[in-house]
Design brief:
Elements lengths: L1 H18 L8 E3 L17 E2 L35 E2 L9 H5 L6 H8 L7 E5 L2 E5 L2 E2 L24 E2 L7 E2 L2 H7 L10 E3 L9 E3 L3 E2 L1 H4 L4 E3 L42 H4 L15 H7 L7 H4 L35 H6 L19 H4 L4 E2 L47 H4 L43 E5 L11 E5 L19 H5 L34 H4 L19 E2 L8 E2 L7 E2 L10 H4 L51 E2 L34 H4 L18 H9 L4 H4 L6 E2 L31 E3 L3 E4 L29 H6 L10
Parallel strand pairs: 3-7, 9-10
Antiparallel strand pairs: 1-12, 2-6, 4-5, 8-11, 13-19, 14-15, 16-17, 18-20, 21-22
């Protein structure tokens, strides 16, 4: 009689399954007998009964079923395990209270096998007998779910009781949650929703408004199309089947994740990780096999599953695939390491999961260089991965990767760190020169256009990232920004590039998020993070506030006199004479935040003064530049473009063989090495400034340092002194300065050197002056500033006591402060 009832139950369940069958041409069919959930002796999997032929008995019974609401005649006890560790993150907007209570509802049915605590063959009723244990093969210890690759990996059926690495379940998913998150679709009852009697069943059914395992999985389904790979019992496509559109969810074409997660619509669909015209690289055989992907699967089809796995390695955060520091393959446990997810593809061909990486930047090797951003947890002072989006103030913080400045180092320098998602939003990056370009037409690179007409507009790889714009209360060098405007979100195709936009429009806005007092109260010490430039290099001990340095005040553009640059005017400390270092003087800066307004005509320079693309007559004075024009991996001596070109080569400041993650050498000895045009090898300055002009006694081309007798006083001094060092006359940190042309003035060393404004130093000594970070082997004293093209020897020299009071050639050649013997 029991076998008859069991047979009838099988027929009933089969009939119910037939009612829910998709159309005949669909890939998924209700066919549990040919799935691994057929645990009978006839099952196709490795875990199955030794003799039991009944298929449904492992889960269902017509009599003596568990009293579980909504459960389908359940034939198993529920696990008594305590799930103390459930999914959580700072960017999850679901009820923390619900999540902390652990799995409930129908999810508990799945976990009665998949948490690995109960024997699979233990059922309430079998063959009319209560509390039976069906003999099984292929199980783990005690007849439980086998570990497979290990319970701590993302490649196992045994999820364990630690669910921090598994998609959240048993939480309310409604319109309010979707609104709080900003990147979730509101349940519509058709795709996602709670089933209503008499109405069509939602494609992804909630249980009483809650997300459960059964929302995504139907244990009876089988995937019949081999091109779609393992179906994983998913109710919808496991992979992207057609080019993503970013519009309404398509159950025929879209990956199942997009039924709930709407990552900015077209922002995701056209991103470099989803666009078929960009993400066309294929997973190699071993990677595809491990991930149960079909052969030759391109990245765009893997879509979300390229970087995430709904049941990933333990220790990873935000369901990041392989996102831990484990050294095993596949990764097994470990601590969160976001970069490892990116390294799956962004590494050498031998290390990559892809079969071709020609156009995929190898970021991993850059982060292994001598000087690098502290991306590894072992390089970070906190000793753990501090980075955490969704923190700070405001709404929908996870959507825009917002992070609290406290986690960047504000009030706690131990928190300083770098992670890939500090600078990049992987859901929005595009392979285009500009962040607001039309990504339907990818370009040769996602980095900026390094050609004439150079700008500082953010490139496609920074699209949708989080940054800050300084707000200044004054123009004087040394005045730190009074506040910062947060930049977040994305303006779409053709978005405004004005700096006041609410989204990131400039690369420096991303850099200043860490390299300014937005991220600290006291400047951090060099070398405190692993891989950093050691403290004391070039005399520098601490980082400098680059938001203060790079300020480009509108009132200081062009060639003019200003009174608010920070230069001194008045009576020097302890003296009786008066000086004025403001006439013909103004702030100087490299044009990262804004152009200088100082044209070829104003400077008296020519196209031979700079290397391309900086030398075009129409652009000098009006163009801007990027932080990454100077900072990044080492490049050829005459260029800042990465070796091998930009398509597939990293451009940004990930790591370098040079100190300060520079693209070339920069130290106290950088400059002309001899009279006949020899100069420091691979000098950073001469990647933009032509060494033929600045480091050769016969230098052609003009410079702003000239007069009616000499069109190039740089060349003249190289001839007379026989070598030049840039820091003799220019500050050692050339971001921005209180004087024009970054000129050192040892008649006016002030707060930047820890002294009173107008203090004269290097008095009656031929030794160079060192007071880092700005003064490194400095020698120049300016008595009064001249306009470009009108410099005379009388402009230089000591202004008076306590210096020797001499000027001109006598001061430079014969006095107690002469330039003879400078290092």
């Amino acid at each position: 009689m029991t076998r008859v009832l069991s047979f009838l139950l099988t027929l009933v369940l089969a009939a119910l399954a037939l009612l829910a069958l998709p159309p005949a041409d669909a890939a998924r069919v209700a066919d549990i007998s040919n799935t691994r959930h057929n645990l009978s002796a006839s099952g196709p999997g490795t875990v199955k009964a030794t003799t039991e032929s009944q298929i449904c008995v492992f889960c269902h019974t017509p009599h003596a079923a568990e009293n579980i609401p909504n459960a389908p005649l359940w034939n198993r006890k529920l696990s008594g395990a305590t799930y103390s560790n459930t999914y959580n993150s700072s960017s999850v907007d679901a009820s923390i209270d619900e999540l902390s209570q652990g799995p409930g509802g129908l999810s508990r049915l799945c976990l009665s096998c998949h948490d690995g605590t109960m024997a699979i063959g233990n059922v309430n009723v079998s063959n009319g007998q209560a509390n039976q244990s069906i003999s099984m093969t292929g199980t783990g210890a005690g007849g439980t779910m086998p570990a497979g690759a290990g319970t701590s990996t993302g490649f196992t059926r045994n999820l364990g009781t630690d669910l921090t690495n598994d998609h959240p379940i048993s939480f309310t998913y409604d319109a309010a949650l979707a609104a709080r998150d900003g990147e979730l679709r509101s349940p519509d009852g058709a795709v996602v929703g709670t089933r209503v009697r008499g109405q069509p069943k939602p494609k992804l059914p909630l249980e009483n408004g809650q997300m459960q395992c059964t929302t995504c999985h139907d244990p009876h389904l089988r995937e019949t199309d081999p091109t779609k790979g393992a179906g994983k019992f998913l109710r919808l496509n496991r992979l992207q089947e057609s080019s993503p559109t970013g519009g309404n969810f398509s159950d025929a074409g879209d990956i199942f994740c997009l039924a709930c997660h709407d990552k900015g619509g077209q922002l995701w669909a056209l991103s470099a990780h989803a666009n078929p015209l960009v993400a066309d690289e294929q997973f190699n055989t071993s990677a595809a096999t491990l991930r149960e992907f079909p052969a030759n699967l391109p990245v765009w089809r893997a879509a979300c599953l390229s970087c995430h796995d709904t049941h990933t390695v333990q220790g990873a955060r935000r369901l990041l695939r392989e996102g831990t520091d484990s050294l095993s393959t596949p990764k097994a446990g470990g601590n969160s390491a976001i970069e490892e997810t990116c390294y799956q593809c962004h590494s050498t061909l031998a290390q990559s999961a892809l079969s071709n990486v020609t156009q995929v930047p190898n970021i991993k090797d850059d982060f292994a260089l001598t000087r690098r951003m502290p991306i590894k947890t072992t390089d970070q002072q906190a000793g753990s991965e501090v980075h955490d989006i969704g923190t700070g103030t405001g709404t929908q913080r996870g959507k825009d990767f917002i992070e609290s400045p406290t986690l960047l180092g504000k009030a706690n320098l131990l928190n300083r760190h770098v992670e890939c998602t500090d600078c990049h939003n992987p859901h929005r990056v595009i392979k285009n020169r500009l962040f607001n370009a039309n990504a339907t037409v990818p370009e040769a690179g996602g980095t900026h256009n390094h050609a004439a007409g150079h700008t500082n507009i953010a490139s496609g790889v920074l699209k949708g990232s989080h940054g800050v714009e300084p707000v200044y209360g004054g123009a004087a060098f040394g005045t730190v920004p009074a506040a910062y405007d947060i930049k977040r979100g994305d303006g779409g195709v053709g978005a405004s590039t004005v700096v006041t936009s609410t989204w990131v429009t400039r690369e420096y806005q991303v850099c200043l998020k860490c390299h300014s007092n937005y991220a600290y109260d006291t400047p951090p010490r060099l070398g405190d993070s692993g891989g950093g430039t050691p403290s004391g290099t070039n005399g520098m001990v601490n980082f400098t506030n680059q938001a203060m340095e790079f300020q480009a005040p509108t009132g200081h553009k062009g060639e003019l006199s200003t009174i608010d640059s920070g230069a001194f005017a008045g009576i020097p400390p302890g003296q009786s004479y008066t000086v004025n270092y403001r006439t013909n003087n103004h702030r100087g800066w490299h044009p990262v935040m804004g152009n200088t307004g100082r044209t070829h005509a104003i400077r008296g320079t020519s196209t031979t003064s700079w290397r391309a693309p900086w030398n075009a007559t129409a652009d000098v004075g009006s163009q801007t530049m990027y932080c990454s024009d100077c900072h990044g991996s080492n490049t050829a001596a005459d260029s800042v473009v990465p070796a091998g070109g930009e398509n597939g080569s990293p451009w940004g400041p990930h790591g370098s063989t040079n100190n300060f993650i520079l693209k070339g050498e920069w130290s106290a000895t950088t400059g002309a090495a001899g009279r006949e045009g020899s100069f420091t090898a691979n000098a950073l300055c001469f990647k933009c400034h032509s060494p033929n002009t600045y480091a050769d006694r016969n230098g052609g081309g003009g410079t702003g340092f000239r007069n009616s007798s000499f069109s190039n006083l740089h060349a003249h001094h190289t001839d007379k002194i026989e070598h030049l060092r840039c820091t003799w006359c220019h500050i050692a940190v050339p971001h921005g300065w209180k004087n024009k042309a970054f000129l050192v003035n040892l008649n006016d060393v002030g707060p930047e050197g820890g002294l009173a404004p107008g203090t004269q130093v290097r008095n009656n000594t031929r030794a160079a002056y060192n007071n880092p970070p700005y003064y490194v082997n400095a020698a120049l004293k300016v008595r009064n500033f001249a306009t470009s093209g009108n410099w005379s020897e009388g402009n230089c020299g000591s202004s008076g006591a306590p210096g020797n009071g001499q000027s001109g050639r006598d001061w430079m050649r014969d006095s107690s402060e002469s330039c003879g013997g400078l290092p």
